[in-house]
Model the fold of this input.
Amino acid sequence: MAKGKGLTIGKIRGGLYKGGKILGDINAVVRGTIVLRIMRRILGSLASRGISTVLGGKRRP
Done:
């Protein structure tokens, strides 16, 4: 199979993670905890950038 074509394990895995993220968002709306979820997502993003900077990794745009 040529690279970049067809269904790969990575694409399936990415799709499953994306689906899980969407289901988590829906569940947070139903439970009324969407604000906490958004705050945790922002804090997680900032933390990962901080760790990346400390370890000298390249920053993604």
Remarks:
- The mean pLDDT is 89.
